[in-house]
Sequence to fold (757 residues):
Amino acid sequence: MAVPGIARGPLRPRYDAVIIGGGLQGVALAYELARKGMRDVCVVEASYPGAGASGRNGELIRSAFSSPEWATLFEISLRKWHTLSAELDVNVLFTPAGYLVLASTEADFRRCRLAAERHRQLGIRTDLLDARSVCQAVPALNPDRVAGGLFQRDGGFAHHDAVVWGYVRAAAWQGVEVHPFTTVTGIRVEGGRVTGVETTCGTISTPMVVDAAGGQAREVAALAGVALPTRTLRLEAFVTEALRPFLRPGVALLSLLGYCHQTTRGEFVGGTEQRIMEPEDSLRTTLVGLRDACQKFVDVFPLLAGVRLIRQWAGVVDLTPDLAPVLGPAPEVEGFWLDCGWIYGFMGAPGAALLLARAIVDGRMPAPLAPFTVERLYTGRLIKEASLVVASPESAA
Amino acid sequence: MSKRVAFTFEGRTVSAEEGQSIGAALHAAGVRTLSWSSKYRRPRGLRCVRGVCPSCTVRVDGLPGVLACTTPVRGGEVVERIRPAVPWFPADRLSRLAPAGFYYEHLARQPRLWRRAERLLARLAGQAEPPAPNAVATGGFQERSVDLLVVGAGRTGLTAAIEGARSGRSVLVVERDYVAGGRLLSEPNGRELAERLVAEVRATGAEVLLSAIDLGVDDDGVHGVVHPGGLIALHARDVRFATGTYDREIALPDGDRPGVMLASGVQRLLVRERVRPGTRAVIVEVAREGDPIARLLAAAGIEVVARCAPGEVRSIRGRPAVTAIQLARGRLRCDLVVVAAGSRPADELVRQADLTKRAV
Fold:
């Protein structure tokens, strides 16, 4: 049976570009490359499209970050989210219900106030809300855990399967081949240049390879002789049975390290992180994670007490020391590009793919991408971003 | 004659034999529709009758998400169905206009209209009220270690527990049902053997935890066990999965209607719960998998009007519950369709224990 967007034939012996990883980054980049006129683009995916973190994340979308680097990149992405359904001609179920960064303590609220100031300077529309306004906007919140919040009205969430498959289909219309269940076993480099990719389904000759392998990006880069200073992190999430609508916007719990939203169908989807997380690469969930999530969310949303969880799952990401993605060419191997190191990859993908395709085809790095090249990880000029809801590797120490 | 207990179902009193499940008691009282599917509001009723499918999800004493088929009647509780938020909305009848996945294909180019449609869908979809605050029991958390964890208190699990305990090991048996014995309880002469095995387990000092679910094992080898008393982080030196089997499913047109049940569920109603699952049955079977249930139905005086292969089924009629089946050979009146397609191992815990990084 033919699946829309999936290549029907076998791998061909030659492509202009091979993207390793059929997650959201990979398929979105393939689509943008083809739109820029690149012919013969191929995506090889070890499993099915979206099997990794693209299908396991919290689905939230915002651009309200506090550093100019993050805010600029994600604002481009957010604008794209608002027109993505029309562009791909697939309803990706983007729900612009807003994105609330919840401050639970006075210290959190001070962080929100600083961020709001930055957003004004950067031209991003956010509203700083006092505790009363937050409780009015989301009455299900426990007032004792609300010190205020930062609200981005045009943020929201989308349905990850719809987005991944929307891009797959749109990419296929542009001539891209997506090959699932095709594992990369080697990357050929001759004289400092990429010349081909070895897979379980045959060897491809190509002058350009993009590492968009998500949680496995470091392993893929190593095949090309590129050492990425990243570490694997496991994140966990859960979904409850469907309840009547009680939560409209997506919510991030700033110092509690959690994020959540209620789907159109009524399920509550959430995830939390613990302060100290071991580097992990297993897809098993943990009891520690389950207890942490239940305690935090029942505390913040008391009506969830007694609600049944129907699923819990884990996904892995490959993290950089500053938690920002790596976008751009790998300096030591010509023709080898990086689109990895993501932790906010779901919301960032549409914009990053657009910009990276420009960089690859035009041969010039667009300004918003320049800070995200891999060099920063070697020189130590890291990007400082204060409004991430993630336990950073440093804070674990 | 065993003791009788009673509970309230949507304003009326329903009586049950002590030990019966809420689902079986409701079935005996003629209630076939127990829930509605979330998207198309299709009526659903008892189907697997073993706590695996969500078709019998009801609200008990203010707590939503309770599986009627594996929750015992205690007496005095208030049971309600979780009604669609907008009961008059004919979602099932509109399903021809809006088939599965319709929302991916429409309103892609009308973002404003989609925003409004999305809010409407959310209103139509969200069904259950959250739990009543006083309905929630605050369970405790404990850490425990045992030499041997046995998952499943059927014949295999109980036997493994006895052997384990006799060799001097501490043993905990975790059982999803509220009675130990598994399928033995649904076999015509099985209850006696089940009770004997349980007594033997108790005599050896092994512990049996009922209404308890093993959530799986984490990388440190810790099992999460949820039971009515709370959550246990269980360190087990050794594990035996004795989780038995599930019935295989067959996709039939309108095969989710109340009255379409899996063979082992019908057997459980008939033998263990002593409830007549129907009066006229049609068995849809693969090979001769329907033989045992056909014999049991006949012995109980329930007429088996036909046995057929899945390919012969043209449609299943009746709304909300089954009243007839249309076969290639003609239409037959019936109020029970038994799906008998054999079984498959209940192996999800084994596979979870094997989870690796690659998702395939």
Remarks:
- The CA atoms of residues 325 and 349 of chain A lie 10 Å apart.
